[in-house]
């Protein structure tokens, strides 16, 4: 939304002197209160200013950019997560590769005897093991996995943006979605760069009137 | 931006009867032209309606949703692509795995003797080969790669959204960015789900006034 010069001036005045009445703003600009009425309506309706009866105008700090950001921040893990694939610590690396192909996932989550998260296994971990000299049938996944507490994870109420930042920072393709149980974490979902890509497409299409 | 009931009604009237004058709209709503003035100002300033002098109001089809979509459509491959890693068709699968670890990428692009794209090699392709019975040193990548013309690719002027859709549809993690040369394609970049994730973060932060 494009504001005109006078509207920008009004915002500057309100920023500095809030709360300020319409009459006072009009005085600053050397115009009548009636002249300002449409401008003040536009600024309050579009969320830039807030008008409190008998007090005056306040600056909300909300702009069209902020509003887009707020829309993005509404996208939560629970709307976009996938089903996790878990295997026990004792499973062999060979079994893990098979599981990855059968389930068509890029990451497996390893759980201990209580079913709590103990590690993460990526295609990269398995590829490294596979070209090594070890027999993949003899190596348990617990030897080659990334291990707690050095594992990035997220929760269902986290935002998609939080997870995107985490994946980039930790340089991983996926993180488990967890919830606390006892003194550990139960794995209840999976968030990957594929989920982020899908969230991005869904956000863009939600904003494309031709698709909706 | 939140519109009120009357503003929604005005948009509906203009959609059906454009071009229509302010007086005519006022008549439809049983109010005076003066009453409508702030509403019409808001609707034209925020881009919903266009006012042409001596003609009347038109519906532009632009809404705040459209404006966000237009912003997303401005993000192009050339702003977000990474450097590609290429290997010759004759390289061994073992050499390809080493290259993947050294360069820390999830996909390699395979080129023929003229340096033109002939295949794509993913971690999944290499993992499948690695747990097979073949000797990774003896298998050339040309045997295990996905081969032209069954390869998804993109160009620098494509949008990030186009590529996101392509990665989801083809179920791949990366596509080469190519340009035509002779009767083939030269590889000039790499677009992955990581690049999409970074584009998403960058879009969100570009819209976060606290970060800019």
Automatic annotation (TrEMBL), chains A, B:
Keywords: CBS domain, Transcription, Transcription regulation. CDD domains: CBS_pair_CcpN (cd04617). SMART domains: CBS, HTH_DEOR. Residues 80-136, 145-210 form the CBS domain. InterPro entries: CBS_dom (IPR000644), CBS_dom_sf (IPR046342), DeoR_HTH (IPR001034), Diverse_CBS-Domain (IPR051257), HTH_11 (IPR013196), UCP026546_HTH-CBS (IPR016842), WH-like_DNA-bd_sf (IPR036388), WH_DNA-bd_sf (IPR036390). This is Helix-turn-helix transcriptional regulator. It comes from Sporolactobacillus mangiferae.
């Amino acid at each position: 939304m494009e504001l005109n010069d006078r509207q920008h001036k009004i915002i500057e005045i309100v920023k500095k002197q809030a709360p300020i009445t319409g009459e006072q703003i009009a005085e600053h600009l050397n115009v009548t209160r009636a002249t300002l009425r449409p401008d003040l309506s536009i600024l309050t309706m579009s969320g830039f200013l807030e008008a409190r009866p008998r007090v005056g105008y306040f600056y909300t700090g909300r702009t069209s950019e902020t509003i887009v950001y707020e829309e993005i921040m509404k996208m939560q893990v629970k709307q976009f997560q996938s089903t996790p694939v878990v295997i026990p610590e004792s499973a062999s690396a060979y079994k893990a590769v098979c599981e990855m192909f059968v389930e068509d996932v890029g990451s497996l989550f390893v759980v201990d005897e209580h079913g709590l998260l103990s590690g993460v296994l990526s295609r990269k971990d398995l590829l490294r093991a596979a070209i090594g000299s070890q027999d993949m049938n003899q190596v348990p996944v617990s030897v080659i996995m990334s291990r707690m507490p050095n594992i990035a994870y997220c929760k269902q109420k986290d935002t998609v943006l939080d997870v995107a930042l985490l994946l980039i920072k930790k340089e991983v393709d996926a993180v488990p979605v967890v919830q606390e149980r006892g003194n550990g974490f139960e794995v209840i979902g999976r968030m990957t760069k594929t989920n982020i890509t899908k969230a991005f497409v869904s956000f863009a299409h939600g904003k494309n009137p031709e698709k909706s």
